[in-house]
Amino acid sequence: MSQQSFNAGQTRGHAQEKAEQWTESAKQTAQSACDKTADVALSARDKTANLTQSTQSKSADASHSTRESAQHGQEQTAGFLGQTGESVKNMAQGAFDGVKNSLGMNEKK
């Protein structure tokens, strides 16, 4: 019977040792998963920050480009309206001179 008790105690000791090894392995696996999750979260945060900064930069560039384009359009419009106004003025002066000529009022005396 003492051999059976010895064998039972030895088996119990091996089982306890295996259980402790499995428990330690599970703890290490859980810690590794936790570390990987933290790394992924940090990486995602960094990527989000970079994307946000890139989007803000592109938005500012587009806004600046739009502002410059609008200013250029205003300058072209002002130039066109100035030329049109000058043309209308010249046409009116020409019409006025034509009327004066046909009425004989433009003769130099």
Describe this protein's structure:
The longest helix is centred in the middle third of the chain and has 102 residues, at 2-103. The protein has a domain at 3-46 and 72-103. The protein contains 1 helix and no strands. With 109 residues, the chain is mainly alpha-helical. The mean pLDDT is 84. The chain is rod-shaped. It has one helix at residues 2-103. Helices cover 94% and strands 0% of the residues.
Quick rundown:
This protein is an all-alpha fold and 109 residues long. It contains one helix and no strands.
Write the layout of secondary structure elements.
Elements: H1 2-103
Key terms for this structure?
single chain; 109 residues; mainly alpha; 1 helix; rod-shaped; Late embryogenesis abundant protein 1
What proportion of the residues is helical, as a percent range? over 70%
Structural class designation: mainly alpha
Q: Could you report the average pLDDT, rounded to the nearest whole number?
A: 84
Please give the count of helices.
Answer: 1
User: Assembly type of the shown chains?
Assistant: single chain
Unreliable parts: none
* Radius of gyration from the alpha-carbon trace, in angstroms: 46 Å
State the end-to-end CA separation: 156 Å
The tally of beta strands, per DSSP, is: 0
Proportion in β-strands: under 5%
- Give the SSE order as H and E letters: H
Shape: rod-shaped
Q: Major sheet: size, sense and barrel closure?
A: none
Organism: Brassica carinata (Ethiopian mustard)
Protein name: Late embryogenesis abundant protein 1
InterPro entries: LEA1/2/D7/KIN2
